[in-house]
C-alpha cells in the first residue's frame, strides 16, 4: 500500500507523541524545526519560539511513571508542502497517589515538507 502525505503526517505526529512520552529529546528535536513556535499551557498565553523552552521539560528528572498518549479523531489536511494535524490527545499516566488518570488536550500541529522530509514548525495545545 502506497503512503500518502496524510498517512506520513499522522505517522510523524504519533512518533512525536511517543518521543514526548518517552522523554526522548533526540527524536523530538529531529522532528522539529529549530525555530518551532507554539502556544501551550506551560507558556501562560505567550508565543514560544525555538526549542530551548521545550528542552527544559525533557531535562527534568523522569518520574519513572509510565505514560501513554493517544490521538483520537485525528484530522489531517495537506495544502501543498504544509500539513495540519488536529486531534484530541489522551494522556494516560499515574497521579501523585499512583492512581491511573487520563488527561485530555486538544492539539493542532503544523508541519512543513522541506527536502522531502516533514518538519514540525508550530503547534497549539489547549486543555480540553
From TrEMBL:
InterPro entries, per this entry? Answer: Ca/CaM-dep_prot_kinase-assoc, NTF2-like_dom_sf
GO MF terms on file? calcium/calmodulin-dependent protein kinase activity; calmodulin binding
The reply to whether Ribosomal protein figures as a keyword in the UniProt entry is no
Protein origin, superkingdom: Bacteria
Q: Which SUPFAM superfamilies did the record assign? A: NTF2-like (SSF54427)
Q: Which UniProt keywords apply?
A: Kinase, Transferase
Q: Any idea where the Calcium/calmodulin-dependent protein kinase II association-domain domain is?
A: 8-128
Protein name as it appears in the record = Calcium/calmodulin-dependent protein kinase (CaM kinase) II
Q: Which organism is it from?
A: Planctomicrobium piriforme
Amino acid at each position: 500500500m502506497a503512503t500518502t502525505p496524510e498517512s506520513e503526517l499522522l505517522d510523524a505526529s504519533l512518533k512525536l507523541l511517543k518521543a514526548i512520552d518517552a522523554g526522548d529529546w533526540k527524536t523530538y528535536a529531529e522532528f522539529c524545526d529549530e525555530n518551532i513556535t507554539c502556544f501551550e499551557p506551560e507558556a501562560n498565553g505567550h508565543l514560544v519560539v525555538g526549542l530551548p523552552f521545550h528542552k527544559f521539560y525533557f531535562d527534568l528528572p523522569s518520574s519513572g511513571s509510565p505514560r501513554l498518549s493517544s490521538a483520537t479523531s485525528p484530522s489531517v489536511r495537506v495544502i501543498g508542502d504544509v500539513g495540519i494535524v488536529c486531534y484530541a490527545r489522551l494522556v494516560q499516566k499515574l497521579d501523585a497517589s499512583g492512581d491511573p488518570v487520563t488527561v485530555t488536550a486538544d492539539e493542532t500541529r503544523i508541519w512543513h515538507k522541506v527536502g522531502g522530509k516533514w518538519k514540525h514548525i508550530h503547534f497549539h495545545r489547549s486543555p480540553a
